[in-house]
Task: inverse folding
């Protein structure tokens, strides 16, 4: 494959190179250092994790906001450090994997249950699998077959979801694929195939697979279509070596495009909302059961906003959320300011702070009322 | 082609619920607040119809297994005998999602089978709400296919979109025993009242970017309805067609409680046919019975009966022949796949009429809009012929 000039920027110039000396990746302490010297620079990082980047970074990378302990650990450090620590880790791959299952609508009754498919995040994290092999494994799973029964549906979904092909515009490929699905031989996407498994293999090995993957992941993460030239370069890189994909992701996180994405707040997927709600209010992740039930209900609404507010109120009033007693809040203004940063990922404006503080002085306003005001507001329901 | 009288059928006695029983069942879970329910303004002075229920009898259902097999769908047969039956309705094999969407938009455009995104064209909900100036509570859609089908509420056309969309409720996703039990385990949320409510509103208002009073009211209405519906029996519905039956039950309760101008229902479970022809027939039979419950609820209420129209149509049919698993796929290009039957019933429609002229599923949207006095500006369909009395 040819050189890929635009793919290299995706692997991102190291923050150190971009921002000057002293901003390199954090490193373990080296022998010979003075006691207490952990090797980290004391200079400001190029992309410091302020309230906004910290919340959005965790949500994009791990599908949840930071816990209280993680906030304490990561506030003010560099985004690149967070990427060093988590991008490519099992939790990040688990989040990516769940997003893929959603893309294929392999949820609820169609969620893959086989150990082989469930092991995908761990296998990706230890480098035993790349993204192409991971999606191939998904598409040959019994769950995928059950979700897309029959030749017409199966072949259509393989062409549409894996290769981004509109089957109505290429009816010939659909017909060949259906013939192959039924055990016949045919030249599917230009390659010989003679089984259902061949259809999937040929599809993921087609250049259109890499292009479709890169385009949709770019849209998901950066909320914008990629430039055509960049898409071509990144696609070539992933097609040639799918192990390049994490490097491309890293470049996206450290790009101006991700900074711009921070201003494009959209309604989060319900799965992200449920996880965020639990971490924000209870400081733990919901169980799989809690996630599934809440997410399933929210997914049943075209506008889940009202039900999201109900769930927030439920959790706040359930006794599970460790809400401080009114008398334990020594500095209400500081407490409220902290909630703005933690729940909304931004500082409160002076007017907002004043309005909340005035309201809180009224004996009828409980600490829970403040939490409800924030968590039921549309701003909390965007990320 | 001429319309012709329907062959003699003997409409059975109207079965099912009376209004008292229905309302009792519908509100049995607790008092239901109905804040600010605006009545639909009369759409067209020359028509009696004030409400329309559109049922996408979807999942891929052949005519020969429904109205073509006498006695298999007694309620649909009865509805057809009292209304207009279109025997040759052209469909587009766009996958369930795209084909069902084409019923609602009047535009048959390719959509990915697993595409989880809104379409570019406005839906009939948007046309009607915008042209008639209706609030959100006047358009609802009950579905059974999960997250993807919430996209049916509205499209992304710049002149329409979310502000004119329908409230979408997925029956099985929302109203299931697991979710109900989980809610119960947390306890109902404490109600915020009096001074605390004022303070809450003040804090929320200070955040800005909030919703208007109408949206807040609609949200409160939806919240109240969802919590109330969880306490009713919908979550306990079981059986081969449970998700479809829940969608139809939700629609029944919505029609009885909110009496909206437009109610849509999109079914899905007939698609079990891929693996089992017999299971498919069972789903079709049960869905007909659930549809009958909805229809009877309307007929048992004099006001609803005099002002409500139904349009029932599958999104497409299925293959002519069984597959190797003794099931039925959808992709052979046969007339069984490409043509379905549609039934229209309502106070302004002809009775006992069969129309054999070719029409399309895309004609449903402009027909419903015309019926209510709205204009489907971007549809590629036309009004159904020989419909009005």
Result:
């Amino acid at each position: 494959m040819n050189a890929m000039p635009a793919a290299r920027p995706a692997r991102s110039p190291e923050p150190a190179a971009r921002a000057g000396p002293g901003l390199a990746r954090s490193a373990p302490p080296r022998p010979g250092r003075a006691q207490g010297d952990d090797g980290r620079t004391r200079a400001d990082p190029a992309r410091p994790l302020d309230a906004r980047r910290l919340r959005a970074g965790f949500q994009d990378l791990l599908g949840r906001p930071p816990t209280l302990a993680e906030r304490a650990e990561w506030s003010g450090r560099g985004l690149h450090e967070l990427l060093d620590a988590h991008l490519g880790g099992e939790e990040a791959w688990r989040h990516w994997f769940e997003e893929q299952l959603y893309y294929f609508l392999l949820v609820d009754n169609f969620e893959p249950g086989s150990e082989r498919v469930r092991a995908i995040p761990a296998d990706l994290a230890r480098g035993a699998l790349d993204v192409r092999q991971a999606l191939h494994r998904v598409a040959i799973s019994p769950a995928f077959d059950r979700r897309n029964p029959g030749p017409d549906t199966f072949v259509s979904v393989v062409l549409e979801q894996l290769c981004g092909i509109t089957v109505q515009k290429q009816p010939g490929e659909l017909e060949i694929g259906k013939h192959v699905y039924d055990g016949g031989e045919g030249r599917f996407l230009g390659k010989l195939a003679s089984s259902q498994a061949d259809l999937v293999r040929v599809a993921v090995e087609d250049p259109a697979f890499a292009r479709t993957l890169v385009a949709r992941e770019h849209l998901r993460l950066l909320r914008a279509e990629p430039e055509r030239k960049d898409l071509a370069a990144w696609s070539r890189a992933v097609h040639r070596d799918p192990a390049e994909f994490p490097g491309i992701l890293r470049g996206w996180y450290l790009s101006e495009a991700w900074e711009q994405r921070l201003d494009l707040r959209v309604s989060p997927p319900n799965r992200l909302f449920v996880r965020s709600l639990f971490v924000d209010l209870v400081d733990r992740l919901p169980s799989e059961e809690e996630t599934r039930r809440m997410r399933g209900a929210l997914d049943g609404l075209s506008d889940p906003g009202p039900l999201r507010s109900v769930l927030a109120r439920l959790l706040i009033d359930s006794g599970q959320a460790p809400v401080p007693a009114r008398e334990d809040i020594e500095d209400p203004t500081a407490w409220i300011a902290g909630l703005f940063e933690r729940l909304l990922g931004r500082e409160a404006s002076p007017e907002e702070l004043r309005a909340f503080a005035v309201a809180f002085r009224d004996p009828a306003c409980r600490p829970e009322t403040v939490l409800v005001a924030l968590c039921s507001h549309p701003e909390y329901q965007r990320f | 082609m001429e319309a012709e009288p329907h062959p003699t059928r003997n409409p059975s006695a109207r079965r099912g619920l009376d209004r008292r029983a229905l309302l009792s069942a519908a509100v049995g879970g607790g008092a239901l607040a109905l804040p600010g329910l605006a009545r639909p303004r009369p759409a067209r002075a020359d028509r009696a119809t004030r409400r329309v229920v559109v049922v996408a009898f979807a999942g891929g259902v052949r005519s020969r297994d429904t109205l073509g097999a006498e006695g298999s769908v007694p309620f649909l047969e009865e509805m057809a005998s009292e209304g207009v039956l279109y025997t040759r309705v052209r469909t587009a094999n766009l996958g369930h999602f795209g084909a069902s969407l084409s019923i609602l938009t009047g535009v048959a455009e390719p959509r990915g089978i697993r595409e989880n995104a809104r379409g570019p064209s406005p839906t009939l909900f948007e046309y009607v709400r915008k042209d008639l100036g209706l609030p959100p509570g006047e358009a609802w859609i009950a579905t059974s296919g999960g997250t993807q089908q919430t996209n049916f509420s509205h499209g992304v056309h710049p002149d329409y979109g979310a502000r004119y969309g329908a409230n979408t409720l997925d029956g099985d996703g929302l109203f299931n025993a697991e979710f109900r039990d989980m809610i119960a385990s947390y306890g109902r949320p404490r109600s915020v009242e009096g001074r605390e409510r004022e303070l809450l509103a003040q804090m929320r208002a200070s955040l800005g970017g909030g919703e208007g009073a109408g949206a807040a009211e609609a949200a409160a209405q939806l919240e109240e309805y969802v919590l109330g519906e969880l306490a009713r029996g919908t979550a306990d519905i079981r059986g081969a067609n449970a998700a479809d039956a829940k969608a139809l039950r939700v629609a029944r309760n919505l029609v009885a409680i909110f009496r909206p101008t437009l109610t849509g229902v999109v079914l899905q479970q007939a698609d079990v046919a891929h693996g089992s022809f017999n299971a498919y027939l069972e789903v079709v039979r049960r869905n007909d019975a659930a549809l009958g419950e909805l229809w009877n609820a309307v007929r048992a209420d004099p006001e609803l009966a005099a002002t409500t129209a139904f349009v029932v149509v599958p999104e497409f049919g299925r293959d002519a022949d069984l597959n190797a698993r003794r099931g039925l796929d959808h992709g052979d290009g046969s007339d069984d796949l490409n043509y379905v039957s549609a039934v229209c019933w309502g106070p302004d429609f002809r009775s006992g009429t069969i129309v054999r002229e070719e029409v399309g599923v895309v004609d449903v949207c402009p027909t419903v809009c015309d019926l209510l006095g709205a204009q489907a500006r971007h549809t590629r369909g036309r009004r159904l012929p020989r419909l009005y009395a």
Q: What stands out?
A: Chain A touches chain B through 64 residues (CB under 8 Å). The first strand of chain A starts at residue 186 and ends at 188. The first helix of chain A runs from residue 7 to 10.
